[in-house]
Protein 1
Amino acid sequence: MSAEKFYLKPNVVIEPLYDRWYAWSHLISPATAALNVTGRHLSIMDSFVVEPSIHAEAVLNPKMKGGPFMDIPVTRVDEVKTLYEDTLQRQETAVQFSKAVKELDKMLAAEGKGFGMETLYEKVPDMLRGFVELFYDRNNNADFRFFESLLYKSKHYNKSSQSIALWVTENDHRPFCLSTPRLDEAHVLHLEIPFDHPGIDELAKMKREGQSLDYIKSLLGITADQEALFSTFFTNTPPPSYKRYTGDKIRMRYFGHACILVETKDVSILVDPLVSYYGYDSELEHFSDADLPDVIDYVLITHNHQDHILFETLLPLRHKIKHLIVPRTNSGQLENPDLKLMFEHIGFDNVVAIDEMETITFTDSTITGLPFTGEHSDLNILSKACYLVEISGFKLLFLADSRIVESRLYKHIHDSIGDVDVMFLGMECDGAPLSWLYGPLMTKKITREQDGSRRLAGSDCRKGMALVNIFNPAEVYVYAMGMEPWLEFISSIKYTDASNPIIQSNELVKLCQEKGLIAERLYGEKELLYSRKLEPVS
């Protein structure tokens, strides 16, 4: 056994996949995974196999960016066909599950007429019997909920579809993740291991801690024919030592999009982790995982969208995270997968679900979960929360992609928490239509007009200024815009000066500055230091 120590190169991507598609949160919960396999993956692959030239033309059109078009050369159509056939075979249960959900929806629409439901249980599709509870809402509309924890313990939770791809990135560009699977490439090593595999933690630790290659190869089950490529992911040059923050102030670091690190010498809080790499030439200066502490005390998740829960960042950080805070969700409804359950089933054993207006207290700091409205296409999505972080009397308000639809809600919140010092607000105010993200979960088709009116949109200038005027911050930062180049493969966003979110956020920054506030739209990286208002508790 070789005793020489090696380190994982800083630009090695640990990419989680599900049936060779980029893994995001709706591909973990068994119900949403099944409907995304059938309503997204199989649908897009089938379309590509039938008319690959249409996809080739669409991906060249900027107006089609983010659409259901594969960014794969038409010469590889046979490989896509093979993936399609393999998916049909390995996901046979998921295909039947999806059909059963649609059948149940249709049965309840036809027969759930306000009378007792016990006889309807006999008409529940066999595959779903024992996994669902039928009910009426207050307006006599029939619906159902899953016993989601039981689904995870059944054959419907398909861990065998999970895998990891390892590769070295030299730039920030990738195809849009929701429409393009990862085919075999000479420079990409695929590991058929689930997301809770301990080898992921040990591999990630090697970014800072040297380890023998024999050890990690044995743990990950690297075969003889994989060894040559696997060895290219490592170096025997130690990385620069991380310098822990030891100052007396509160340090804020912006890592891009909605990812903010708040640190004192005693505690670290990371919001919506989405961290880029270093070790290659980037068009934009940015922090990377090399700038994260060795221990992250609290990670805060605001909501269940693919640009706010990024497994590519979270899985390699898992061994560092002491507490993972998520919005509480246990409705069992299809559109509301339970985030605590999800994270626990992919290897996080320290997950805390927080309610609205619930506070977590530690030393001289608190984290409070707050209501979050907007940006969810008017669906009854519960897995979302804004956060107030208060350290020694200094208040930072993270509003994520909130869109103020009823100002009195935020006035009530203000009555409870008071004015804040710093406010972070997302202003991607156009947003994709409902079907872009939630389409695979819907049985009844909605009209194009309805779809376009129900958007995944954050605040525009008017709504953003309403929040500023309620919470009276001294500093306002626009964030979560999806602008950074390493976000494009997730968000599909590429702005110009004429883009409405840029115009709206420019106007908000201008109005805030005219009020005497510090205001800026964040981009790339930013570091700020703040003085505590109260002396820290010793």
Protein 2
Amino acid sequence: MSKSENSRLGRRSLLQAALAVPAVAGTATVLGAESARAATPQAGTTAADGRRGHFDEESPRFALAVLPDTQYLFDADSSDPEPLKATFRYLVSEREEANIAFMTHLGDVTEHGTEDEIGLAADTFRTIHGKVPYSVLAGNHDVRSSTDDQRGDTAYLEAFGPQRYASMPTFGGASPDGYNSYHVLRAGGREWLVLALDWRASDKGLTWAQGVLDAHPTLPAVLTTHDIAWADDNGEAHLSGNGQRLWDRIIRGNDQIFMALGGHYWPSGRTVLTNDAGHDVHVHITNYQERYYGGAGMIRLYAFDLVRNVVDVETFSPWFLARDPEKRTPLEAETIELTGPVDRFGLDIDFAERFQGFAPVVPPKPRPASRVMPRGTVAYWRFDSSGLTGAGKPGSPVAGGTVAHDLSGHGNDLSVQLLHTSPAEALTWSAEHHTDQPAHASLRFDGGKNPNRGAVLTTGAQAPLNSMKFTSGFTIETFIKLPEPFEGDHAWMGILSWEGRNGDAGKTTGWSKEEPTCSLNVTPERFLQFVLYPHVQDADPTSWSHALPVGRWTHIAVVNDGLGTVMYVDGSKIARNPSQPATGIATLGKPFVIGGTQFAQEFGQSFYGWIGDTRIVDRALRPKDFMLSMD
């Protein structure tokens, strides 16, 4: 505990806890002894053998719970452990819902470090022990503040030394003195390292910590200690003297440390520093001991979302939260949650990019066509050397007449046509692709207006696909990417279609009789439209997506089961799918086209962006069988 010269506090608020995960430790040493627990599943983990599960270690959403200075709750004869027990009960009860992976205490567990205070605190930790893995480190009030981790035996070490964590499979080991430890936990489908360092790590302690990092070079690491930074009135954190030493000795040169957390000072604060690799390190102070009831066991949840690439942070007191709102006192109601910028906030972290230097993501290898052609595949095109004649270097033009082979073997080859007086660069070969696309290649279409330009790929006049009716259902899939920025005056543009006007198929409903009988399009606002004129019904059931992002690959699937049509974007069903019945496609023996439609060319434009693997199956597939997810 220490109050900084700048002590003004802001109020903060409660985010919604929703995430987190498990823990499986790697091998390590505990005071020099090999840990035999590394392969033991943690209590509550979701395991293949069906044992009880309270969290999901593979979910991309998980939470790290952080507990700062609790010393005023363990202060001689004024001690009251109930707030901390309530916090622990909350973490246990909410572990599954919030997917809580781990809890770390930032030191100053007690006020004086006496045997009685330490004993009461250790007993309180029984509430969480064996139910949520955790780490604890010594603060200056738990041990003699004039000493470092070479101080020898203490009441703290007796209660919170390595033996306390020996049964936790997350526990990796401790320094020979016992005051520094580390845990390896599995969360978000990968392993993470948590370092818990004494309030004054000695040179020996820092050498040990470096050894831990060296032994786990690919694990992203969160460093926890008691004293690392203080904050000014604006919540801007600054390294303390001890924090500067840790920064110089252990943090800045180890790129895997992306977050460093401490307590000790108040008010709370945060900053972002740049390490030697040029990457961000988030440094946070968390301490609420000066607030009502010594902080009342206030907890901070760091909710990681590896899909959204964010960490959402919330701060609240489960003890006050559990009370009847009508019976809360004014101070209890005021302290239930904190809502200012240093207690409730979000961190934008592109995890793959941030961890690239020490744990690069290995992209999936291309998958051969034979592995992505399920029963009923009637056409499959890809634009690598296996599917496109003369596939060249990135950026090289694809000449008119170039053939994209139908790898299903059904004779639905496509031929390139340059539109109007388009230059050769209207269609180029690209190595860009969706991460989960089978082929690692695509075509870059430079369609546009003023002047009209573009390119399409069309089937031959006798291709079987031209006349197929699909009355039992179909699945059409493709990968596309819209450029960033989405420059120019882009009109309605086609992605793929069967040519032939619906009016010629005898359809009397719909927006225009000139529309193709089946087409997938992009509006100027970047909404997908799939419009179908069925073989059986006189109707035009139409699906509409949300606005597509730019600069990012998107997988599109349109599934018809012979009764109706559903569109999926990146494996997720969209909202605006039609309820109208739709059986088959009213094809007219006209070519199938990728890169545009006759209607779009007349009233809009040909495609602008990238198109990758495209597949048509003559039955309805389930999402698990899409190209996006197939092995």
